[in-house]
Each structure stands twice: as structure tokens, then as C-alpha cells.
Amino acid sequence: MKQRKQSTDYDEDSYWKGGLFYFNRNDPSIFVEKRFGVGWTLNFANPLGYFIFILPLVIVLVLSLL
Predict the structure, then answer these.
(1) What is the pLDDT of the chain when averaged over all its residues?
(2) Closest C-alpha to 28, from 12, 48, 13, 11
(3) What pLDDT shows up at residue 49?
(4) Cα distance between residue 53 and residue 66, in whole Å
């Protein structure tokens, strides 16, 4: 018997910090649909989400110092 993947309710208020930042440790997704508007946002509870967020900042800082 196949095990179904549990779906996560992305719109649950407890997973949105300040209404803007998605933070759900039980969700393996890195990107989730934005709550308002069009597009995607990061799951900041996923360690890879921080890496994706910080890496471009580090690259810009390094290139600006050269």
C-alpha cells in the first residue's frame, strides 16, 4: 500500500512570522507560494533557505570590495 504525502496548509497563520516570512520546520519545501500577491517565498525553517538567502548578499559584498 502506497503512503500518501501529507499536504501542508501554507496559509496557516502560525507558519507566517509577521505575515511575511514562512517558517515551518515540518515542511521540507524550500520555496512556497506567497500568501499575498504572485510569486514564491523561502521557507526560513529550512537550512537551505538561509543559504539561498545569504549567498547572493555575500557575493555582492565580495564583488563590491574588489
Answers:
(1) 84
(2) 48
(3) 86
(4) 22
- Most confident region among 18-22, 36-40, 60-64 by mean pLDDT: 60-64
Cell 514564491 sits on residue: 40
In this prediction the pTM is 0.69
| Grid cell locating 42 | 523561502
pLDDT of residue 10: 67
Q: Are 24 and 43 within 8 A, CB to CB?
A: yes
Closest among 53, 64, 66 to 23, alpha carbons compared:
53
**Cα(35)–Cα(10) distance, integer angstroms:** 8
* pLDDT at residue 20 greater than cutoff 70: yes
Cell of residue 51, nine digits: 543559504
How many other CB atoms are there within 10 angstroms of residue 37's CB atom?
7
